[in-house]
Amino acid sequence: MTATSAFTSWDYRAPARTRSCRLRPRLLALILAASFPAACVVPIVQPTGTPELSLKGFPPGTEAAEAISADGLTLRGVFLPAGPGAPVVLHLLPSEASATTGLLGIAGWKQTLEVLRLQGYSSLALDYRGVGASDGDPDPTALPEDGASMWDEAVRRAGGESGKVVLRAASLGTIPAAALLEAGRQPRCVVLYAPIRSETIAVHAPRARRGPFLGTIVSWFLKRPTEVDLVEALRETEVHVLVVASREDRYLPEGERELLFAAAEAGGNPVVLFEGDHLQLVSRAYGFEWGEFAGRVIEELLEAERLFLAAKDPR
Q: Rounded distance, CA 132 to CA 128, Å?
């Protein structure tokens, strides 16, 4: 559905001796949007986290880490080594998450890094520009560029061997992950949690947060990510990929889920369905499980991911 197809022209029949007033959809949207608070427009890349990186509370041995983008910005985050020669998990984070604070500031982020280290994996997590302690302003069009800089740093920390890098991406992070696969990067394997599509996320996200009417209007004012075809990347890549998706996901409606699943399965890659919504799955990817009234920290990987990584590990 195009932006303008959500509304038809509105024709107000005025009393006699006055003119008919016809408002076109864009004009109507502008009038309505002007009356909404700025908080209604939530950007695709959210400036979450803290501007100062503190290693307090991270597992022992965690280091501050940096990567330099192609346009000279410093992307900051953390690196937790697992020992000499260990493979490196590159975390491509979701929106509302930062290497400085984790997802929404809830527990589980630091524990997940430790769980991976105990299984022999180092972790590198850097924030996109404008997020956490990284330089610049949030920019969804720069996700592929930031992802490429993070990839280069992960390969460097893996001793220059791309086959020792695992891409672990959640939600928004699946956009730079798709860009890396499109560009022909060859990680050991890829884990995609709650994947989204760059072509449609700027429409689905505000609708999920604000409802179909207001969300459609808000979507017209959002800066869109650079389009990267995750479906095609899954269909064409020779890299082993695990897709973990929600059965009910307003960020990836059923028709788009089926396209993505078919592409993954065409390449012989497994698809696992998670009983929960988008946020519940992304939270579980980073060590937190939501209950009906509260949540709890889960200090273990999802079983499907644990088995997938073990099968792809030549050690």
A: 8
